[in-house]
Amino acid sequence: MKRRNFIKVAAITGATTALDSCGNPEHQLIRFIPEEDLTPGVAEWKPSVCTICPAGCGLMVCVMEGDAEVIRHGQAGLMKMGLAKKLEGNPTHPVNQGKLCPRGQAGLQVTYHPDRLAHPLKRSGPRGSGQFQEISWDEAIRELVSRLAALRSTNQAASLAFLTKPLSGQRRDLIEKFLQAFGAPPGISFEPFDETVLRRANELSFDRPQMPTFDLARANYVMVFGADFLGTWNSPVAQSVAYGVMRQGRAGSRGKFVMVEPRMSQTGANADEWIPAPMGAEGILALGIAHVILNEKLRPSGEAARAGQLVDGWAKGLPDYTPQAVESSTGILPATITRLAREMASHTPGVAIIGGAPLAQTNGLFSALAVNALNALLGNVERPGGLLFTPPLPSNLPAPGGAAPASFAEIRTLVEKAQGLQGLLLYDANPVFACPRSLGVREALEKVPFIASFGNFIDETSVLADLILPDHSPLESWLDHVPESGVPEAVVSLAPPALHPLHNTRAMSDVLLDVACQLGGPLAAALPHRAFEDMLRAAYEGLGGPKKQEPKEAGAAWDKMHAQGGWWSAEVQKPVFPARPVSHRPYANHGPAFDGAEKDYPLHFLPYASPMFLDGSLAHLPWLQETPDPVSTVMWGTSVEMNPRTAGLKGIKQGDLVEVTSQHGSLRAPALISPGIAPDTVAMPVGQGHEHFSRYASGRGANPLAILAPMIEPETGALAWAATRVKISRAGDGRLALFAGGLRQHPQNEGER
Amino acid sequence: MQIRYRRVYMLLAAGALAGVLLKPIIYGGEQAPANPAQSQTSPEFTPAHRSFADAVRDFFGFHPTPVQPIAYTHKVHLANGMECANCHNGAENSPVAGIPSVKLCMMCHQAVATDKPEIKKMAALYARNEDIPWQRVYDYSPTAHVKFNHAPHIRAQVECSTCHGDMRQRTVAVRTVNMNMGFCVNCHKLRKVSVECITCHY
């Protein structure tokens, strides 16, 4: 027999033997004793809090018994444990009222993500290489404590910075107390789509430095400037529920919805009337409408009070904003402006909403103040059917929003002062990805001698860390959140862990408490709680009314709070309307300024929060990657959206690879030809283009934030992320993954099918 | 030349096939599998079989008796006044009756009969934070697509012994009742309950 044939035969026989003997690998694993007692096959719904965005929706987690492959005491094995099968909205929660957005639904994959960090890590390769080695929690905490103790003993405590995702409630309070007692500056809460401008405008106009809430359910007329309020902006689930009531839930009175934006968003596609205003001209249009109302005396001019006084020329009836003047800067017909003004004035209550790209201009604050003044003029503020503010909690707990995080300005300062930084703590903030590359965040952070990260994934920022102390997933943690907006009443979303920890992780809050205890001194005194649960209880138990004296009922309020998923006041609280006089000079429009000359860079560049990934922090979840964009149906990638006319000029066809170049860089992505975008604008969803962010997001698509110019809204220091001009050119053939053929529902011609 | 080699291949292939086919018949019945932690069918719900041998065993309806890691005796526990549902507490309200974790056993056996070798074995597992690797006794072939739910049967007051035999006479559990489709349908007919396909096969 030839050797070759012998090998063939041996392979066949061997395969059969192997087939027979190979067991199911699960059965080679040992079984650990379960940590909880569950009835197999019976679902238990436990409350939790959605941490995907800052809206603070209440969750119900479907927990069922299942087998999980876990590692306990260094040994791999199987364990029967409660596993989350599905997330839904908490029906009793006042923010989302039982509803949940697709991002919230996909939050389940955070817990079971294959690339989630399962144990503490220490950097073993050069910084940024992504090479880490596993260490024990004792080692990790010892390392962190010794680094912090060294900073403190050398009087360098002030050179420690803490960079977090937007947090609220006790987790933020814990970080603030920690930093204060340590002697470090306050933590920086990083929001890529900086809302500082709107918070600042609301502070100026209404003395409320927080995001607004809209009583859409009772509104008759809604005019929205740029805000994707049904998709990604502010408190989208609460707003969508109320919007549904406005449009279809009231017999005989369907509210009108007008959308002003240069690119048709998911929200704009729902509007009765869609008005493409040029970028940065939204405030001018709002004042044009206010001019007509004032001129025709549809509302008394004094109604706007303080909000009006902040706008230059208000007292004189806005002479610079006649419909003809507004037409010359926006291209919107005077007849349209007059009609909109009359409709708005006669269909009260109503509300004008501004958010997103209009505020990300160099005149963002002016536009926000203009819309605030229009709302005040129409009598929409703090009225049913109008603009409201979520009241603070009825105790001395931190207010929702509170000290508004001026995040981009703080990041800029951090980058400038990075030389002097001795230590950086990170918690799920990713400025390396989400800041314009021209800012040099990565280069600045690389110089910091010690970086520790608490996040449970490796992303572009935490890959630079020296030490990673992975947090529990949100479903495994004690959570609290004080929604800044979305509800007319004070709310605390609060929930105990719905699951036992799957991996060898520890809650960031518990690690900080432990570190504070080990560091001793003022830190231990400032944070006396041994567990975050105790801290939450101490903070929120008092909300449930006076403490009962009978021992039997002592914990009743607390038990009720975490059984229902939070605390909310029964009656709507009377808002405190500001009586203080205006302390600022009136603001005039100093035109939007754009980076790049119009001659060389003819197109506006509009990055927008992706309906699936928001600012990119969710690109690691495969359910969201495979969900088509609701308007364009793009999935598993990015696209550059452009008008057919713009594309035609450059000879670009659907799916062609397009190079987008700004003064600060360029990127390539396939073209998406859409009639719903102004010819002078190209738009891109934010969220793809990650370098290090799990197997599902790394190396996929392009990141539009990277090529932005570091343009600043001068009054607030916020990043003007929609103030960059670009040019485009065809770079070759590309691939565009569209679901169900894209924008057109029906082929126009029979042959196109 | 060629023909001679072809014969050799065929002989080898036939030998391999026969080995696989005969193995369950030779070893399957009473003798334990080499690794007690191997179950006979895949625990995943899939129409495919884990191995060719599994398919053959399934086709002929062989159910090798599993060897349990601890020689548990149902007889002693039931004689001492315990009920089935004390340990198999899922039966009343869940599809699965469930096997208790070693935690439940240790609630009593921390104090009771601690000198017995089997109890010592169990205590050693408990000390290592390991559960007892019980072997499945009752299951359905994945190709049968049967979904069995304990709870409605218990609600209909079907005795546990109807399907599981009289455990008061048994030490470790063995398949005393041949649970094939005929067995199920007979009882369903007797009790005048649904015999629609979709009741069990879905």
Which features characterize this protein?
heterodimer, A: 753 residues, alpha/beta, N-terminal domain of TfIIb, Rossmann fold, Dimethylsulfoxide Reductase, domain 2, seven-stranded mixed sheet, 22 helices, 28 strands, 28% helix, 19% strand, B: 202 residues, mainly alpha, 2 domains, 10 helices
Produce the secondary structure layout:
The complex is a heterodimer of chains A (753) and B (202).
Chain A: H1 3-21, E1 30-32, E2 44-49, E3 58-72, E4 75-89, H2 102-106, H3 108-111, E5 121-123, E6 132-134, H4 137-153, E7 160-164, H5 169-182, E8 188-189, H6 196-206, E9 213-214, E10 221-225, H7 236-249, E11 256-260, E12 273-275, H8 282-295, H9 305-309, H10 323-330, H11 334-346, E13 350-354, H12 364-377, E14 387-388, H13 407-416, E15 423-427, H14 431-434, H15 441-446, E16 450-453, E17 467-468, E18 479-481, E19 491-495, H16 508-519, H17 521-526, H18 532-540, H19 556-564, E20 566-568, E21 603-609, H20 622-625, E22 640-642, H21 644-649, E23 657-662, E24 665-673, E25 681-686, H22 694-697, E26 712-713, E27 718-719, E28 724-732
Parallel strand pairs in A: 1-4, 7-8, 7-15, 10-11, 10-13, 11-12, 15-16, 16-17, 21-25, 22-24
Antiparallel strand pairs in A: 2-3, 3-4, 5-6, 5-17, 9-14, 18-19, 19-20, 21-28, 23-24, 23-28, 26-27
Helix pairs in contact in A: 4-16, 5-16, 6-12, 8-10, 8-11, 8-12, 10-11
Chain B: H1 2-28, H2 52-60, H3 74-79, H4 84-87, H5 102-109, H6 117-127, H7 150-155, H8 160-164, H9 181-190, H10 197-200
